[in-house]
Design a protein that fits this description.
204 residues, 71% helix
Length: 204
């Protein structure tokens, strides 16, 4: 992949800037109490311009997951020769825990915790999140070779990652020390991926 052009960089910056403005408003006032028109005004763009970038109000929040949508599929496609898909995904998830990647739930930054409270506390955002997860499953299923067995394996893998991350976030949001959660998260992830490895088809 070549360097990103100026136009694409400007587009990416617009996505990020408008999403940041929207999330700030949602955290301050609540998702349901902020209109799309209010977000557009705060971002100093028109409402039609906003909808050229984001197809729904929910996507203003879920934009932060866009880069992760095909992440599992990319990890599997780039795995080392002889490495199983589950091993590659285990390694990637554990590395995320080590660097406090918010996608693993092991992150005590107050803004990240507030973002997760907004996300999981808003039914329409949770519903939209599941659409992202379904696309993640589809992409991973294709990376695993397609077919029913691959799609079943992808569903199990994505579910394990989601549940592990939500448990980590829940514990930190309830006040548990992040050092304790991180330690337990590693053990839980190792066990969960080991069970996946044992139960999934050899081709995975």
């Amino acid at each position: 992949m070549g360097p990103v052009g100026l136009r694409e960089r400007k587009k990416m910056r617009m996505y990020q800037d408008v999403s940041d403005v929207a999330i700030t408003l949602f955290l301050q006032k609540g998702f349901e109490r902020v209109s799309v028109a209010e977000v557009a005004a705060a971002a100093q763009i028109s409402k039609p311009t906003l909808f050229r970038y984001f197809s729904s109000k929910e996507d203003l929040v879920l934009h932060r997951f866009a880069d992760h949508e095909d992440e599992a599929a990319r990890v599997v496609a780039a795995r080392a020769p002889g490495e199983s898909a589950v091993d590659a995904l285990r390694r990637q998830f554990l590395a995320g825990i080590e660097r406090s990647d918010p996608i693993t739930g092991v992150n005590a930054d107050p803004h990240i915790l507030a973002f997760h409270r907004l996300l999981y506390g808003t039914p329409s955002l949770v519903a939209r999140l599941y659409e992202y997860l379904e696309r993640s499953e589809d992409a991973l299923g294709e990376a695993l070779g397609g077919g029913l067995e691959a799609r079943l394996a992808a569903g199990q893998i994505i579910a394990v990652q989601r549940i592990l991350a939500q448990e980590n976030w829940r514990r930190i949001s309830e006040g548990e020390p992040v050092v304790d959660v991180r330690r337990d998260a590693v053990v839980s992830a190792e066990g969960a991926f080991a069970r996946l490895e044992a139960g999934l088809p050899r081709c995975v």
